[in-house]
Amino acid sequence: MAVEPQITTNDMLLMVRTALSDGGITFGIEETFLPYLERGELVTLLDDWLPPFTGFFLYYPSRRSVTPKLRALIEHVRQYREAGP
Known about the structure:
This protein is mostly helical. Helix content is about 40%, strand content about 0%.
């Protein structure tokens, strides 16, 4: 189905505020909407067609030339994934 969105944004807070204000249907990462779903302020749609989220993937050019900042991010993500939900 083709739709003509009235608002296009990557600002998750704006997406939540718009949905809470009866601004229509929005989408994003479940964790962003979870508090509102748990309180019944928002509801999910099309759950049967949603693929499971397996997590983010991090791609970088080479292990030999990783900057300290990128190395810290890699380690943080690795620890987060190992800790699990």
